[in-house]
Amino acid sequence: MIPITIISGFLGAGKTTYLQYILNQRNTNERILIIENDFGETSLDAQQLSTSGAVVREVTSGCICCSLQGNFKDALVDILSTQDIDQIYIEPSGVSKLSEIISTCMDKEICEKAYIDMIITIVDAMQAPMAIKNFGPFFKDQIKHCHAILLSHIEDTKQTAKTKELITELVPNTPVYTDIESLQQDVNQIHQIAHAHNYHDCNCHGHTHDCNHHQHEHEHQPFISHTFYNLQTLEEQRWMELCNILPSTIIRAKGIVPTSAGPMELQYTPQNCSMSATNLDSFHLVIIGTEIDIASISRNVCNPL
């Protein structure tokens, strides 16, 4: 039986960073496959993870818990039938409902060859209050269906404490960690929590997950994305300025952008914006939000046609 680890978390929480850490610590002989689901048409995360030596299967342009659920299941079945692997990691889109991903993983065809070993949810301590207020169904679902929680962006100790309180109110018995090392040291304990959830039992498939309700809530939170190409070469500071004036309807931006100092990886959420040098040069910028003024953003970031 092949173990499946699911790494969940809202947009920009740090799922890929955590997964990269795990991959760097792994036994190099271990055959790992990653299913990477990005909401946009281009997966920056998949490009980053492919440099680790692991095999990456992309499922893009939608959400594997709803519109791409069939694609996700088919991909899993195909992987389990054709790939000789030791471990599967699934990194869902930040707007996925974790409960639906669990439901798909517990499909009878999948349970014959694999099982859910562990589920970790990454929570941005700065972003959590906004996420609960504005996107509660997604955020709370990710919190309530995991075995352990890892907080990221914990520089503000007061805000981190508030986020811990919010999480404890939702899931008082789920362990919350503030650093990766401590979480990894407690992996055996987390496995015991996972086994207590009885996700090995395929018979529970479908009893607690309401797909129609999930679709309804997606209609109430119509996330959309757009990928911009033909980007201008701008100073790093200018890219930061453009991100910081994005409207409140934009909740995520990421990509590889050209600067006078060379290619840089841009990562933006309303609470944080960062840029770092990269060897990747497939220039693009993915914007995710509830409304996107494509023409306005294009004027700022793209070369004139």
A few lines on this structure:
The protein is an alpha/beta fold.
What does this structure look like?
With 305 residues, this protein is an alpha/beta fold. It has two domains: 2-218, P-loop containing nucleotide triphosphate hydrolases (Rossmann fold), CATH 3.40.50; 224-301, Hypothetical Protein Yjia, Chain: A,domain 2 (2-Layer Sandwich), CATH 3.30.1220.10. Helix content is 38%, strand content 26%. It contains 13 helices and twelve strands. Strands 3-2-4-1-5-6-7 form a seven-stranded parallel β-sheet, sandwiched between helices. It has a five-stranded antiparallel β-sheet with strand order 8-12-9-10-11, covered by helices on one side. Strand 10 and strand 11 form a beta hairpin. It is globular and about 55 Å long. This is GTP-binding protein. It comes from Veillonella tobetsuensis. InterPro entries: CobW/HypB/UreG_nucleotide-bd, P-loop_NTPase, Zinc-reg_GTPase_activator.
Q: What key attributes describe this structure?
A:
Hypothetical Protein Yjia, Chain: A,domain 2; five-stranded antiparallel sheet; Rossmann fold; alpha/beta; globular; Zinc-reg_GTPase_activator; single chain
Helix-and-strand structural type: alpha/beta
Determine and state the CATH class of the largest domain: Alpha Beta
State the CATH architecture of the largest domain: 3-Layer(aba) Sandwich
Question: Level of helix content?
Answer: 25-40%
Side by side, the strands of the main sheet go: 3-2-4-1-5-6-7
State the order of secondary-structure elements, H for helix, E for strand.
EHEHEHEHHEHHEHEHHHEHEEEEH
Low-confidence stretches: 61-69, 201-220
Shape: globular
The share of residues in extended strands comes to: 25-35%
Give average pLDDT, whole number. Answer: 82
Number of helices: 13
Tell me the number of structural domains.
2
